[in-house]
Amino acid sequence: MKKLYASALALAACAAPFFAQAQALRLAAPGEGPTPRACGTMEVLAAQLAADPAQAQRMAAIEAHARRVQADRSLQRGQTTLAATGPVIIPVVVHVLYNTAAQNISDAQVQSQLDVLNEDFRKLNADYTKTPALYAGLVADANVQFVLAKRTPTGAATNGIIHKQTKVSSWSTNDAVKNSKRGGDDAWDATKYLNLWACNLGQGLLGYAQFPGGSASTDGVVILCSAFGSRAKYAAGTYTSTYDRGRTATHEVGHWLNLRHIWGDASCGNDQVSDTPTQQTANYGCPTFPHATCSNQGDMSMNYMDYTDDACMYMFSTGQSARMNALFASGGARASLLTSAGGTAPSLMAAAAPSFYPNPATDQLTLNLPDGATAGQYSVHVYDLRGREMPQARYTSGGQVQVSDLPNGMYLLSIGTGTEVVRQHFEKQ
Ligand SMILES: [Zn+2]
Q1: Distance 256 CA to ligand 1 centre (A)
Q2: In the chain, what percentage of residues exceed pLDDT 90?
Q3: Which domains are delineated in the chain?
Q4: Considering the entire predicted model, what is its pTM?
Q5: For residues 196 and 219, what is the distance between their CA atoms, to the nearest angstrom?
Q6: Looking at 32, 252, 389, 427, which residue is catalytic?
Q7: Is 32 a catalytic residue?
Q8: CA of 248 to the centre of ligand 1 (A)
Q9: How far apart are CA 291 and CA 282, in angstroms?
Q10: What is the sign, positive or negative, of the torsion defined by CA atoms of 97, 103, 108, 112?
Protein backbone atom coordinates (compact mmCIF):
# COMPACT_ATOMS: atom_id res chain seq x y z
CA MET A 1 0.00 0.00 0.00
CA LYS A 2 1.36 3.35 -0.98
CA LYS A 3 2.46 5.44 1.95
CA LEU A 4 0.48 8.62 2.08
CA TYR A 5 0.15 11.38 4.55
CA ALA A 6 -3.16 11.81 6.29
CA SER A 7 -5.02 14.78 4.96
CA ALA A 8 -4.97 17.39 7.67
CA LEU A 9 -7.09 19.65 5.50
CA ALA A 10 -9.79 17.05 5.12
CA LEU A 11 -9.71 16.14 8.80
CA ALA A 12 -10.21 19.75 9.71
CA ALA A 13 -12.83 20.44 7.11
CA CYS A 14 -15.02 17.62 6.04
CA ALA A 15 -14.21 14.56 8.14
CA ALA A 16 -11.88 12.25 6.29
CA PRO A 17 -12.94 8.62 5.95
CA PHE A 18 -11.47 7.87 9.33
CA PHE A 19 -10.52 4.71 11.10
CA ALA A 20 -13.92 3.22 11.67
CA GLN A 21 -15.32 -0.21 12.28
CA ALA A 22 -16.49 -1.16 8.81
CA GLN A 23 -16.47 -4.93 9.09
CA ALA A 24 -14.01 -7.17 7.27
CA LEU A 25 -11.69 -4.35 6.34
CA ARG A 26 -8.15 -4.07 7.55
CA LEU A 27 -7.99 -0.53 8.73
CA ALA A 28 -4.87 1.51 8.84
CA ALA A 29 -3.76 2.86 12.18
CA PRO A 30 -3.33 6.64 12.34
CA GLY A 31 -0.10 7.58 10.63
CA GLU A 32 0.31 4.15 9.07
CA GLY A 33 -1.10 5.03 5.69
CA PRO A 34 -4.26 5.93 3.86
CA THR A 35 -7.65 4.75 5.04
CA PRO A 36 -8.87 1.93 2.82
CA ARG A 37 -11.79 2.64 0.55
CA ALA A 38 -15.09 1.70 2.15
CA CYS A 39 -18.44 1.65 0.33
CA GLY A 40 -21.68 1.06 2.23
CA THR A 41 -23.76 -0.14 -0.71
CA MET A 42 -23.96 -3.84 0.17
CA GLU A 43 -24.70 -3.14 3.82
CA VAL A 44 -27.57 -0.86 2.74
CA LEU A 45 -28.84 -3.52 0.34
CA ALA A 46 -28.86 -6.14 3.10
CA ALA A 47 -30.87 -3.84 5.37
CA GLN A 48 -33.35 -3.02 2.59
CA LEU A 49 -33.86 -6.68 1.68
CA ALA A 50 -34.49 -7.51 5.33
CA ALA A 51 -37.05 -4.71 5.65
CA ASP A 52 -38.87 -5.34 2.35
CA PRO A 53 -39.04 -8.93 1.06
CA ALA A 54 -40.64 -7.71 -2.19
CA GLN A 55 -37.42 -5.92 -3.11
CA ALA A 56 -35.69 -9.26 -3.76
CA GLN A 57 -38.39 -10.10 -6.30
CA ARG A 58 -38.05 -6.72 -7.99
CA MET A 59 -34.29 -7.16 -8.21
CA ALA A 60 -34.69 -10.71 -9.57
CA ALA A 61 -36.97 -9.33 -12.29
CA ILE A 62 -34.38 -6.66 -13.16
CA GLU A 63 -31.71 -9.39 -13.31
CA ALA A 64 -33.85 -11.50 -15.64
CA HIS A 65 -34.54 -8.45 -17.84
CA ALA A 66 -30.81 -7.69 -18.02
CA ARG A 67 -30.08 -11.26 -19.12
CA ARG A 68 -32.79 -11.16 -21.80
CA VAL A 69 -31.61 -7.81 -23.19
CA GLN A 70 -27.95 -8.77 -23.23
CA ALA A 71 -28.72 -12.05 -25.02
CA ASP A 72 -30.88 -10.46 -27.73
CA ARG A 73 -29.55 -7.49 -29.63
CA SER A 74 -33.01 -6.68 -30.99
CA LEU A 75 -34.09 -5.80 -27.45
CA GLN A 76 -31.23 -3.38 -26.90
CA ARG A 77 -31.71 0.33 -27.03
CA GLY A 78 -31.66 1.42 -30.69
CA GLN A 79 -31.70 -2.29 -31.67
CA THR A 80 -28.26 -2.01 -33.23
CA THR A 81 -25.16 -0.96 -31.40
CA LEU A 82 -25.43 1.00 -28.19
CA ALA A 83 -23.33 3.80 -29.65
CA ALA A 84 -25.58 4.20 -32.69
CA THR A 85 -28.35 5.83 -30.67
CA GLY A 86 -26.15 8.38 -28.93
CA PRO A 87 -25.49 8.39 -25.23
CA VAL A 88 -28.07 8.12 -22.51
CA ILE A 89 -28.39 11.59 -20.96
CA ILE A 90 -29.14 11.54 -17.24
CA PRO A 91 -30.33 14.72 -15.48
CA VAL A 92 -28.66 15.04 -12.09
CA VAL A 93 -29.62 16.95 -8.96
CA VAL A 94 -26.94 17.42 -6.30
CA HIS A 95 -28.09 17.97 -2.72
CA VAL A 96 -25.23 19.57 -0.77
CA LEU A 97 -26.00 19.16 2.97
CA TYR A 98 -23.70 21.15 5.21
CA ASN A 99 -23.27 21.66 8.92
CA THR A 100 -20.06 23.66 8.66
CA ALA A 101 -19.04 26.13 5.97
CA ALA A 102 -16.28 23.79 4.77
CA GLN A 103 -18.82 21.06 4.03
CA ASN A 104 -20.73 23.44 1.76
CA ILE A 105 -18.77 22.51 -1.32
CA SER A 106 -18.94 25.03 -4.13
CA ASP A 107 -20.80 24.77 -7.40
CA ALA A 108 -17.40 24.59 -9.10
CA GLN A 109 -16.44 21.55 -7.02
CA VAL A 110 -19.80 19.95 -7.89
CA GLN A 111 -19.21 20.65 -11.57
CA SER A 112 -15.77 19.03 -11.37
CA GLN A 113 -17.52 15.83 -10.24
CA LEU A 114 -19.93 15.95 -13.17
CA ASP A 115 -16.93 16.37 -15.46
CA VAL A 116 -15.27 13.27 -13.99
CA LEU A 117 -18.44 11.21 -14.45
CA ASN A 118 -18.67 12.35 -18.05
CA GLU A 119 -15.10 11.27 -18.69
CA ASP A 120 -15.27 7.96 -16.89
CA PHE A 121 -18.60 6.80 -18.35
CA ARG A 122 -17.55 7.80 -21.89
CA LYS A 123 -13.98 6.43 -21.78
CA LEU A 124 -12.70 9.98 -22.11
CA ASN A 125 -10.51 9.73 -18.99
CA ALA A 126 -6.88 10.04 -20.00
CA ASP A 127 -5.70 7.34 -17.57
CA TYR A 128 -7.62 4.41 -19.13
CA THR A 129 -4.54 3.86 -21.29
CA LYS A 130 -2.78 2.51 -18.19
CA THR A 131 -4.96 -0.61 -18.40
CA PRO A 132 -2.69 -3.69 -18.71
CA ALA A 133 -2.53 -5.27 -22.17
CA LEU A 134 -4.46 -8.30 -20.90
CA TYR A 135 -7.56 -6.15 -20.35
CA ALA A 136 -6.95 -3.21 -22.68
CA GLY A 137 -9.38 -4.61 -25.26
CA LEU A 138 -12.18 -4.67 -22.71
CA VAL A 139 -12.12 -0.98 -21.73
CA ALA A 140 -15.60 0.31 -22.59
CA ASP A 141 -17.37 3.53 -23.36
CA ALA A 142 -20.46 3.02 -21.20
CA ASN A 143 -22.33 5.55 -23.31
CA VAL A 144 -23.90 7.35 -20.36
CA GLN A 145 -23.69 11.13 -19.85
CA PHE A 146 -24.71 13.31 -16.94
CA VAL A 147 -26.08 16.86 -16.97
CA LEU A 148 -26.99 19.02 -14.03
CA ALA A 149 -30.75 19.51 -13.99
CA LYS A 150 -32.05 22.68 -15.62
CA ARG A 151 -35.67 22.18 -14.57
CA THR A 152 -37.11 21.20 -11.19
CA PRO A 153 -39.83 18.55 -10.83
CA THR A 154 -42.39 21.40 -10.77
CA GLY A 155 -41.02 23.00 -13.94
CA ALA A 156 -39.03 25.91 -12.49
CA ALA A 157 -35.56 26.82 -13.72
CA THR A 158 -32.63 25.46 -11.66
CA ASN A 159 -28.87 24.93 -11.87
CA GLY A 160 -29.31 21.42 -10.46
CA ILE A 161 -27.42 22.15 -7.22
CA ILE A 162 -29.14 22.57 -3.84
CA HIS A 163 -27.15 23.91 -0.88
CA LYS A 164 -28.91 23.24 2.40
CA GLN A 165 -27.69 23.89 5.91
CA THR A 166 -28.47 21.22 8.49
CA LYS A 167 -28.04 20.71 12.23
CA VAL A 168 -26.89 17.15 11.56
CA SER A 169 -23.10 17.00 11.90
CA SER A 170 -22.54 13.47 10.59
CA TRP A 171 -24.60 11.06 8.50
CA SER A 172 -24.84 7.29 8.31
CA THR A 173 -26.25 4.79 5.83
CA ASN A 174 -29.73 5.07 7.40
CA ASP A 175 -30.87 7.38 4.55
CA ALA A 176 -31.76 10.29 6.86
CA VAL A 177 -29.81 12.49 4.45
CA LYS A 178 -32.52 11.80 1.86
CA ASN A 179 -35.31 12.98 4.15
CA SER A 180 -36.06 16.65 4.81
CA LYS A 181 -37.88 15.79 8.06
CA ARG A 182 -34.70 14.20 9.41
CA GLY A 183 -32.46 17.12 8.54
CA GLY A 184 -31.64 15.96 5.03
CA ASP A 185 -33.16 16.88 1.69
CA ASP A 186 -35.92 14.91 -0.05
CA ALA A 187 -35.13 13.12 -3.32
CA TRP A 188 -36.40 14.56 -6.55
CA ASP A 189 -38.51 12.20 -8.68
CA ALA A 190 -36.16 9.25 -9.15
CA THR A 191 -37.79 8.30 -12.45
CA LYS A 192 -36.56 11.59 -13.91
CA TYR A 193 -33.35 12.43 -12.03
CA LEU A 194 -30.25 10.87 -10.56
CA ASN A 195 -30.11 12.21 -7.00
CA LEU A 196 -26.63 12.76 -5.54
CA TRP A 197 -26.20 13.79 -1.91
CA ALA A 198 -22.88 15.31 -0.85
CA CYS A 199 -22.60 15.35 2.94
CA ASN A 200 -20.41 14.60 5.92
CA LEU A 201 -20.85 10.84 5.75
CA GLY A 202 -19.52 9.12 8.89
CA GLN A 203 -18.59 5.52 9.71
CA GLY A 204 -15.44 5.82 7.62
CA LEU A 205 -17.53 5.57 4.47
CA LEU A 206 -16.76 7.32 1.20
CA GLY A 207 -20.18 6.64 -0.25
CA TYR A 208 -23.10 4.31 -0.80
CA ALA A 209 -25.63 3.76 -3.53
CA GLN A 210 -29.01 2.16 -3.97
CA PHE A 211 -29.33 -0.51 -6.66
CA PRO A 212 -32.22 -0.42 -9.15
CA GLY A 213 -35.28 -2.03 -7.56
CA GLY A 214 -35.23 -0.12 -4.28
CA SER A 215 -37.63 2.52 -2.99
CA ALA A 216 -37.94 5.68 -5.12
CA SER A 217 -37.78 7.92 -2.04
CA THR A 218 -34.24 6.73 -1.25
CA ASP A 219 -32.99 6.16 -4.80
CA GLY A 220 -29.62 7.69 -5.62
CA VAL A 221 -26.08 8.00 -4.33
CA VAL A 222 -24.58 9.49 -1.16
CA ILE A 223 -20.96 10.66 -1.18
CA LEU A 224 -18.65 12.11 1.43
CA CYS A 225 -18.38 15.81 0.56
CA SER A 226 -14.57 15.78 0.56
CA ALA A 227 -14.57 12.85 -1.90
CA PHE A 228 -16.96 14.73 -4.20
CA GLY A 229 -15.26 16.35 -7.15
CA SER A 230 -11.74 16.45 -8.49
CA ARG A 231 -8.74 18.32 -7.17
CA ALA A 232 -7.15 18.04 -10.63
CA LYS A 233 -10.10 19.87 -12.18
CA TYR A 234 -10.86 22.30 -9.37
CA ALA A 235 -7.93 22.73 -7.01
CA ALA A 236 -9.62 25.26 -4.73
CA GLY A 237 -12.09 22.69 -3.40
CA THR A 238 -12.02 20.68 -0.16
CA TYR A 239 -10.70 17.15 -0.66
CA THR A 240 -9.60 13.99 1.09
CA SER A 241 -6.26 12.81 -0.25
CA THR A 242 -6.27 9.47 -2.08
CA TYR A 243 -9.98 9.99 -2.92
CA ASP A 244 -9.71 13.37 -4.60
CA ARG A 245 -10.26 12.42 -8.24
CA GLY A 246 -14.01 11.90 -8.19
CA ARG A 247 -13.84 8.11 -8.54
CA THR A 248 -16.02 7.46 -5.50
CA ALA A 249 -18.96 8.85 -7.49
CA THR A 250 -17.97 6.80 -10.54
CA HIS A 251 -17.97 3.65 -8.37
CA GLU A 252 -21.26 4.49 -6.64
CA VAL A 253 -23.06 5.52 -9.83
CA GLY A 254 -21.85 2.17 -11.19
CA HIS A 255 -23.85 0.51 -8.39
CA TRP A 256 -26.81 2.78 -9.13
CA LEU A 257 -26.61 1.41 -12.68
CA ASN A 258 -26.70 -2.16 -11.30
CA LEU A 259 -23.00 -3.02 -11.18
CA ARG A 260 -21.75 -5.25 -8.37
CA HIS A 261 -18.33 -5.11 -6.77
CA ILE A 262 -15.90 -6.78 -9.10
CA TRP A 263 -15.10 -9.58 -6.64
CA GLY A 264 -18.82 -10.41 -6.35
CA ASP A 265 -18.92 -9.67 -2.61
CA ALA A 266 -17.82 -13.22 -1.80
CA SER A 267 -14.56 -15.14 -1.97
CA CYS A 268 -14.07 -15.66 -5.74
CA GLY A 269 -17.67 -14.45 -6.09
CA ASN A 270 -19.79 -13.59 -9.14
CA ASP A 271 -20.39 -10.00 -10.23
CA GLN A 272 -22.89 -11.11 -12.93
CA VAL A 273 -20.56 -9.81 -15.65
CA SER A 274 -18.89 -12.37 -17.91
CA ASP A 275 -15.81 -10.47 -19.08
CA THR A 276 -14.51 -9.43 -15.67
CA PRO A 277 -12.21 -12.08 -14.19
CA THR A 278 -13.21 -13.88 -11.02
CA GLN A 279 -11.15 -12.47 -8.18
CA GLN A 280 -10.87 -13.39 -4.56
CA THR A 281 -11.70 -10.16 -2.80
CA ALA A 282 -11.30 -6.40 -2.86
CA ASN A 283 -7.97 -4.77 -3.70
CA TYR A 284 -6.88 -1.64 -1.85
CA GLY A 285 -4.38 1.10 -2.49
CA CYS A 286 -2.58 0.81 -5.79
CA PRO A 287 -1.78 -2.87 -6.55
CA THR A 288 0.96 -3.97 -8.89
CA PHE A 289 -0.37 -5.97 -11.85
CA PRO A 290 -0.75 -8.89 -12.03
CA HIS A 291 -2.12 -9.94 -8.68
CA ALA A 292 -3.49 -13.37 -9.61
CA THR A 293 -6.24 -14.97 -7.52
CA CYS A 294 -9.01 -17.55 -8.13
CA SER A 295 -7.00 -18.98 -11.09
CA ASN A 296 -7.27 -15.70 -13.01
CA GLN A 297 -4.35 -14.10 -14.85
CA GLY A 298 -4.56 -11.01 -12.70
CA ASP A 299 -7.31 -9.22 -10.80
CA MET A 300 -8.94 -6.40 -12.75
CA SER A 301 -8.05 -4.10 -9.86
CA MET A 302 -8.06 -1.05 -12.13
CA ASN A 303 -11.83 -1.48 -12.57
CA TYR A 304 -13.98 1.25 -11.02
CA MET A 305 -15.89 -1.43 -9.11
CA ASP A 306 -12.85 -2.55 -7.08
CA TYR A 307 -11.73 -0.74 -3.90
CA THR A 308 -8.48 0.77 -5.14
CA ASP A 309 -7.42 4.40 -4.77
CA ASP A 310 -8.88 6.99 -7.15
CA ALA A 311 -5.63 7.19 -9.11
CA CYS A 312 -5.55 3.42 -9.64
CA MET A 313 -9.05 2.71 -11.02
CA TYR A 314 -9.78 3.80 -14.57
CA MET A 315 -12.03 1.44 -16.51
CA PHE A 316 -15.41 -0.24 -16.94
CA SER A 317 -15.48 -3.41 -19.04
CA THR A 318 -17.59 -4.10 -22.13
CA GLY A 319 -19.72 -6.52 -20.11
CA GLN A 320 -20.30 -3.96 -17.37
CA SER A 321 -21.34 -1.43 -20.01
CA ALA A 322 -23.84 -3.87 -21.49
CA ARG A 323 -25.26 -4.63 -18.02
CA MET A 324 -25.69 -0.92 -17.26
CA ASN A 325 -27.26 -0.19 -20.63
CA ALA A 326 -29.80 -3.01 -20.26
CA LEU A 327 -31.47 -0.73 -17.70
CA PHE A 328 -32.32 1.69 -20.51
CA ALA A 329 -33.81 -0.89 -22.89
CA SER A 330 -37.59 -1.14 -23.17
CA GLY A 331 -38.95 -2.24 -19.80
CA GLY A 332 -35.64 -1.47 -18.08
CA ALA A 333 -35.58 -0.23 -14.50
CA ARG A 334 -34.07 3.14 -15.47
CA ALA A 335 -35.59 3.57 -18.95
CA SER A 336 -37.86 6.39 -17.72
CA LEU A 337 -34.80 8.65 -17.51
CA LEU A 338 -34.61 8.64 -21.32
CA THR A 339 -37.72 10.80 -21.54
CA SER A 340 -36.98 13.07 -18.57
CA ALA A 341 -37.24 16.78 -19.31
CA GLY A 342 -35.10 17.50 -16.23
CA GLY A 343 -32.04 18.33 -18.31
CA THR A 344 -33.87 20.84 -20.50
CA ALA A 345 -34.36 24.40 -19.35
CA PRO A 346 -37.99 25.43 -19.05
CA SER A 347 -39.20 27.93 -21.62
CA LEU A 348 -38.67 31.38 -20.17
CA MET A 349 -41.87 32.51 -21.81
CA ALA A 350 -44.23 29.52 -21.76
CA ALA A 351 -44.64 29.07 -18.02
CA ALA A 352 -44.85 32.76 -17.16
CA ALA A 353 -43.82 35.49 -19.56
CA PRO A 354 -42.30 38.43 -17.72
CA SER A 355 -44.58 41.39 -17.17
CA PHE A 356 -43.58 44.91 -16.18
CA TYR A 357 -44.77 47.85 -14.13
CA PRO A 358 -45.80 50.65 -13.92
CA ASN A 359 -47.71 51.54 -17.04
CA PRO A 360 -47.80 54.45 -17.78
CA ALA A 361 -44.21 55.03 -16.64
CA THR A 362 -42.17 58.17 -16.11
CA ASP A 363 -38.67 57.09 -15.03
CA GLN A 364 -38.34 53.35 -15.34
CA LEU A 365 -40.08 50.07 -16.03
CA THR A 366 -39.39 47.08 -13.81
CA LEU A 367 -39.70 43.52 -15.09
CA ASN A 368 -41.59 40.92 -13.05
CA LEU A 369 -39.49 37.83 -13.78
CA PRO A 370 -40.87 34.29 -13.56
CA ASP A 371 -39.67 32.13 -10.64
CA GLY A 372 -36.07 31.06 -11.06
CA ALA A 373 -35.38 33.44 -13.96
CA THR A 374 -32.79 36.21 -13.89
CA ALA A 375 -32.71 39.55 -15.68
CA GLY A 376 -29.69 38.51 -17.72
CA GLN A 377 -31.65 35.73 -19.41
CA TYR A 378 -33.70 38.30 -21.29
CA SER A 379 -32.80 40.92 -23.86
CA VAL A 380 -35.06 43.94 -23.70
CA HIS A 381 -35.51 46.69 -26.28
CA VAL A 382 -37.88 49.63 -26.71
CA TYR A 383 -39.31 50.67 -30.11
CA ASP A 384 -41.53 53.49 -31.17
CA LEU A 385 -44.74 52.68 -33.02
CA ARG A 386 -42.98 53.02 -36.38
CA GLY A 387 -40.56 50.25 -35.38
CA ARG A 388 -37.47 52.38 -34.67
CA GLU A 389 -35.41 51.24 -31.71
CA MET A 390 -35.09 53.90 -28.99
CA PRO A 391 -31.46 53.96 -27.81
CA GLN A 392 -32.36 56.27 -24.90
CA ALA A 393 -34.12 53.33 -23.19
CA ARG A 394 -31.52 51.24 -21.41
CA TYR A 395 -32.09 47.77 -19.91
CA THR A 396 -30.06 47.23 -16.73
CA SER A 397 -28.73 44.07 -15.11
CA GLY A 398 -31.20 44.68 -12.30
CA GLY A 399 -34.13 44.08 -14.65
CA GLN A 400 -35.14 47.73 -15.11
CA VAL A 401 -35.60 49.77 -18.27
CA GLN A 402 -34.69 53.45 -17.94
CA VAL A 403 -37.30 55.45 -19.89
CA SER A 404 -36.83 58.93 -18.41
CA ASP A 405 -35.07 60.19 -21.58
CA LEU A 406 -37.87 59.06 -23.92
CA PRO A 407 -40.27 61.66 -25.34
CA ASN A 408 -43.79 61.20 -24.01
CA GLY A 409 -45.94 58.82 -26.06
CA MET A 410 -46.71 55.16 -26.80
CA TYR A 411 -43.94 52.57 -27.24
CA LEU A 412 -43.40 48.86 -27.71
CA LEU A 413 -41.38 46.91 -25.16
CA SER A 414 -39.77 43.80 -26.68
CA ILE A 415 -38.67 41.04 -24.30
CA GLY A 416 -36.66 38.21 -25.87
CA THR A 417 -34.94 35.02 -24.74
CA GLY A 418 -32.93 34.27 -27.85
CA THR A 419 -35.58 31.85 -29.11
CA GLU A 420 -38.81 33.65 -28.23
CA VAL A 421 -39.96 37.27 -28.18
CA VAL A 422 -43.00 38.96 -26.66
CA ARG A 423 -43.93 42.60 -27.34
CA GLN A 424 -46.14 44.75 -25.17
CA HIS A 425 -47.26 48.40 -25.35
CA PHE A 426 -46.52 50.94 -22.70
CA GLU A 427 -46.96 54.71 -22.36
CA LYS A 428 -44.23 57.16 -21.35
CA GLN A 429 -45.66 60.13 -19.39
ZN1 LIG B 1 -19.23 -0.22 -3.74
Answers
A1: 10
A2: 77
A3: 8-339 (3.40.390.10), 355-428 (2.60.40.10)
A4: 0.81
A5: 9
A6: 252
A7: no
A8: 9
A9: 11
A10: negative
